Amino acid sequence: MSKVAVLGQRDAVLGFKASGAVAFSADDVHEAREKLGKILEGDFAVLLVTEEIAEMLKEELQPLYEKPKPVVTILPDARRPRGLGMELLKKRVERAVGANILLKGEE
After folding, report:
1. CA neighbours closer than 13 Å in the CB half-sphere of residue 40
2. How far apart are the first and last CA of the chain?
């Protein structure tokens, strides 16, 4: 059975364990790369990555966006509304819908 993986700082990923996701905590880029490797070796259908870790692993994550599995989603940081997570979400919605329907009036 496919699973959901969450990669990020310990305090950010622990809450996802209650939902049945497998939490991978990382405090630095080296640990994040190691955990990403373990995730990619597993049978994960979805990978949720905190924005801070996604910025650290930008190059490693880029090719995964085009692959069917795992579906990689960046968890936007609420403290940074113009961060990487929101930018990727905006691009994906615009690609799917054909227009920017997010952040109207904020640009």
Report:
1. 14
2. 42
Handedness of CA 1, 55, 84, 7 (dihedral sign): positive
- For 26-81, how does the pLDDT look when each residue is reduced to its tens digit (9 = 90+)? 999 999 999 999 999 998 999 999 989 999 999 999 999 889 899 998 887 766 66
Is-contact 62 37, C-beta < 8 A? no
pTM of the full structure? 0.77
Amino acid 102: pLDDT: 63
Longest dimension (CA), the chain: 42
Site of tokens 């955990």: 35
Place of tokens 């597993």: 42
Q: Which residue has the tokens 């940081």?
A: 77
Q: Cα–Cα distance between 27 and 39 in angstroms, integer?
A: 16
Q: Does the structural domain 3-76 have CATH classification 3.40.50.10580?
A: yes
Look at residue 7 and tell me whether its pLDDT is greater than 90.
Answer: yes
Alpha-carbon distance 34 to 78, whole Å? 26
